[in-house]
Amino acid sequence: MDIAEKKISESDYVGAKKFVDKAQNLYPNLDGLRQVSVMITGGREADWYRVLGVDPLADDETLKKQYRKLALLVHRDRKKYKGAEGAFNLVLEARRLLSDKTEWM
């Protein structure tokens, strides 16, 4: 999970997924593994809507509510499991990108 967290911080989601999958095989009950696994896609980049667990057509209010819920779930100060910081950073990045509509224009 340490390696997966490092990969997430480097925005290497493919590499992170590889190590999360290995951790799942070796330690399926590892604390926080499920949350990190859900947030990482198998593609080259993160699917930011999937990271937040919302529909791509979700309105801003839905994005905000889901972000708050996930931020509390994986906040690095509340959760001491390996990967918590990487998971929190991923949720934070998803919120930043999806709430900044000017970035798409």
Automatic annotation (TrEMBL):
<feature type="domain" description="J">
    <location>
        <begin position="47"/>
        <end position="103"/>
    </location>
</feature>
<dbReference type="InterPro" id="IPR001623">
    <property type="entry name" value="DnaJ_domain"/>
</dbReference>
<dbReference type="InterPro" id="IPR036869">
    <property type="entry name" value="J_dom_sf"/>
</dbReference>
<protein>
    <recommendedName>
        <fullName>J domain-containing protein</fullName>
    </recommendedName>
</protein>
<dbReference type="Pfam" id="PF00226">
    <property type="entry name" value="DnaJ"/>
</dbReference>
